[in-house]
Amino acid sequence: MAFDPWSQTYGWRSRQYPGGVLGLSDRVLSNVQEANELCSISAGFFRLARSMMIPVAIENPHCSRLWSMPAWSQILRRSDIDIAVLDYCACGMLWRKRTRFVSANVVLSHLVFQCHGTEVCDFTGKPHICF
Fold this sequence. Notes:
The chain is an alpha+beta fold. It starts with 25 loop residues before the first helix and ends in a 27-residue tail after the last strand. The chain has a three-stranded antiparallel beta sheet with strand order 1-3-2, with helices on one face. It contains two helices and three strands.
């Protein structure tokens, strides 16, 4: 399994502690802190581009803990931010992978294609591949 510091499967983050749960080993804590720093940097670039009227967008899994981090939850509350949620099966992929796109100075709301099928895709009628 590839390292994903925002994944919910590792148990390194929780709804209560999106920045990292208490009691992590030094190695894991270092990974979480590095990811938190990258989170802040990406949010800073996003805010800078937004303020300079440069089109900017970021995508991450819809349920990612990234969206719960203070830097990003603050951005998501802004009225000038566009949010689109897309399931990749709507684009012909064999997997669903619900993904959130957050943008400023560019409208991505036309990307809102969501599949309501769990095992079988609404768009293709074929089974979803589960990872």
